[in-house]
Design a protein that fits this description.
By secondary structure, the protein is of the alpha+beta class. The chain is built from three helices and nine strands. Strands 1, 2, 3, 4, 5, 6, 7, 8 and 9 form a nine-stranded mixed sheet that branches. The termini are far apart.
């Protein structure tokens, strides 16, 4: 079964906590000729998080941030969205994450396997899935982000400017 990925923008809540809101109802799928829209049941999303799922940096299993079932992660949901609030641990690479989140260029992505879906009127409804990991991305994802405001070219330019600024300041 193919691993699929979706993304959203991340916000810095305070000095150590990031906030992610994933709107899952009728988001645009990426690179799909079968569907115009996709809807993931938020309750199924939360229930589908595997016991050993990790929050990673850039889908890199050598850069774990925390386990999704730890006290550092609070997950809530309603009929339209899933919200994650993460207290970042004191790791060398989380300082960069905080700076990028402040500049609103940090994104998140989640990898999942669809276990049950229905399709009606070119809308894919996912009502059972398995979430293997959630990642914080320092580069734009190649999949839809419902809250991304800049075009990809603008986003990459912003990211380059921020990294240059971080490097010059020695942050």
């Amino acid at each position: 079964m193919e691993l699929e990925k979706r993304s959203a923008q991340v916000q810095l809540y305070d000095d150590n906590r990031i906030y992610i809101k994933l709107y899952l109802d009728k988001s645009k799928p990426f690179n799909s000729r079968k569907y115009d829209y996709e809807s993931i049941d938020p309750k199924a999303f939360v229930n589908g998080i595997k016991d050993d799922a990790l929050l990673l940096l850039n889908h890199d299993r050598s850069k774990p941030i925390t386990r999704l079932d730890s006290d550092r992660v609070q997950i809530t949901y309603d009929n339209h969205a899933v919200e994650l609030s993460v207290d970042l641990p004191n790791l060398s690479y989380t300082k960069d994450l905080k700076a990028l989140a402040k500049e609103k260029v940090l994104e998140m992505s989640f990898g999942f396997r669809c276990l049950n879906e229905t399709v009606k009127d070119r809308v894919r409804y996912i009502n059972k899935l398995e979430i293997s990991e959630i990642s914080l991305l320092t580069v734009a994802g190649a999949y839809p982000s419902e809250s991304r405001n800049a075009k990809n070219e603008d986003f990459i330019e912003q990211l380059v400017n921020i990294y240059s600024d971080i490097y010059l300041r020695g942050i």
